[in-house]
Amino acid sequence: MKKIELVSRVIVFLVLVIIVTFYFREYSLDRYNQGILLDTKEYISNFDEYKNELLSSKENFSLPYSLTGSFIALLIIVGGYELIVFIVGILIKLMVNNRNKIDIEKKL
After folding, report:
1. What is the pTM of this model?
2. CA neighbours within 13 Å on the CB side: how many for 45?
3. Containing domain of residue 82, as a range?
């Protein structure tokens, strides 16, 4: 693996980690706040609705549909990651080439 490719992968990975961490933290805080606000009467009054919603979800997903969906999702995630790494790598190469070009012009 080339040095520029490694640097671009590290940069993209760190940015993705920061973004995912932020959204996961927001999601966790939102669920925690919902748990604080949920009282027993509200939960019991909607218990049958919650149960039916959970039980009906099995009817909507078959194995071929799940495999196809997982394949497409992973293709988008990995393909998107590789595309971003490629673009960042190109930007880094351009920056390095411009810096070398400026250094050569200064020597002349």
Report:
1. 0.60
2. 5
3. 3-107
